[in-house]
Amino acid sequence: MSTVRAEDREGGVRLLTLDRPPANAITPGLLNDLAAALDEAREDEAVRAVALTGSGRFFSAGLDLRGGIDFQAAVSTEGSVDPFAALRSCLLTFMRFPKPTVGMLGGHAIAGGLILVLACDYRLGLEGDYRIGLNEVEIGASFPRAAFEIVRLRLSHQQASELLLGAALYSASQAVRLGIVDELVPAATFEAVVIRRASRLGAFPRDAYAHTKAALVAEAIARIEAETPEEAQRGAAVWMTPESVQARAEQAKKLGS
């Protein structure tokens, strides 16, 4: 069963919904499902744009640390095991997707969950009571190259530094200031506005949009693809230091898991 639901809306917009209760936490399976949904949307001539959201109270809580990613194996196999292969593949699929993508941020988006929001070309947020942030440093996690390049592509240096190094969780009211969304929209009109904006972008001549988007992301894609197995392994090793392991254990206690 897929963890990503697809629904077609007016104006050639395909709405993709992350659907892995209770928090849409990220696993390799979810990332593969999302990449497959994007591939299907790319090949469907009737789809002019894609909107991405999450089911329930979460857009996504970020990486599921119990979801089958083995950082110890990555460290002990001299780079032959890449724990972030699915993430890299999915984010590259987003960046190479030739049609418009619109993030529909309607709930908590933490760490890797927020990276998926930032992967979208244009982003709208719901006015509401939820939290956003990139708290990887707080829990002893390194940023995979692909995730880091998404942040650098979308945010100013000042915004990226605040989010990455401060590792705080913010009220959704801060999303525009932080560059996460372009606008916050009231609940009564949120979905309609997202679909309308996506439809407008999708109405542009396809080749012109695709060519311009490819030029905008080309340097980021090149840096992602230039990462060596040894560099990826060094990043994975950060997760396994004693301080990092302890930080995640303390986080788990806070969350009651």
Explain how this protein is built.
With 257 residues, this protein is an alpha/beta fold. It has a single domain (4-202), classed as 2-enoyl-CoA Hydratase, Chain A, domain 1. Helices cover 46% and strands 17% of the residues. The chain is built from 10 helices and 10 strands. The strands form 2 sheets. Strands 1-2-3-5-7-10 form a 6-stranded mixed β-sheet, sandwiched between helices. Strands 4-6-8-9 form a 4-stranded mixed β-sheet. Helix 3 (85-96) runs parallel beside helix 5 (145-154) and helix 5 (145-154) crosses helix 8 (206-225). It is globular and about 50 Å long.
Features:
4-stranded mixed β-sheet, 6-stranded mixed β-sheet, 2-enoyl-CoA Hydratase, Chain A, domain 1, alpha/beta, 257 residues
What would you say about this model in short?
By secondary structure, this protein is an alpha/beta fold. The protein starts with a strand and ends with a helix. Helix 3 (85-96) runs parallel beside helix 5 (145-154) and helix 5 (145-154) packs across helix 8 (206-225).
